[in-house]
Amino acid sequence: MSDLDLTPTAVRNWKLPARAMPVAFAFFMSGIMAMLMSLVITAANQGIGQGYLQAVLSAYSLAMPVAFVCVMLVRPIVLKLVSLTVRLP
Predict the structure, then answer these.
(1) Residue 34 in contact with residue 64, Cβ under 8 Å?
(2) What is the pLDDT of residue 14?
(3) Based on the number of CB atoms within 10 Å of its own CB, is 6 exposed (0-12), middle (13-18) or buried (19 or more)?
(4) Contact, 64 vs 37, CB < 8 A?
(5) Residue 31: which residues within 8 A CB-CB, separation 6 or more?
(6) Is this structure's pTM higher than 0.85?
(7) Which of 39, 65, 75 is nearest to 54 (CA)?
(8) What is the pLDDT of residues 25-80, one digit of tens each?
(9) Read out DSSP for 12-71?
(10) Residues 10, 2: contact at Cβ < 8 Å?
(11) Predicted confidence band at 9 (pLDDT cuts at 50, 70, 90)?
(12) Sign of CA dihedral 18, 84, 31, 7
């Protein structure tokens, strides 16, 4: 058996503990949203042409850490707003 075989135990062991879920959520949410916003805003500002991808990556390098911090800061507020507006089953 190779070290690269992914048995159920091996797959489970690489995962983060449950207490890391808010940070993991913020990381993925901010990463995806920052990339989408960088793509759209760069296209709106300078069009899609030569240097577009470089400009997107440059914008993303600033947007991603800012978005991550913002998601972490507003998370408690959003959770409160959701609890005020959604009825539990």
Answers:
(1) yes
(2) 86
(3) exposed
(4) no
(5) 64, 67, 68
(6) no
(7) 39
(8) 999 999 999 999 999 999 999 999 999 999 999 999 999 999 999 999 999 999 99
(9) HHTSPPGGGHHHHHHHHHHHHHHHHHHHHHHHHHH-SSTTHHHHHHHHHHHHHHHHHHHH
(10) no
(11) low
(12) positive
Which single residue is written with the structure tokens 């609890």? 83
The residue written with tokens 């042409």 in the block is: 49
Size (the chain), residues: 89
The amino acid sitting at 83 is S
Identify the pLDDT of residue 12. 62
Tell me if 34 sits within 8 A of 63, measured CB to CB.
Answer: yes
Tokens of 3: 């070290």
Name the CA radius of gyration of the chain, rounded: 19
Distance, in Å, from the CA atom of 22 to the CA atom of 53, rounded to the nearest integer, reads 30
Place of tokens 């960088």: 38
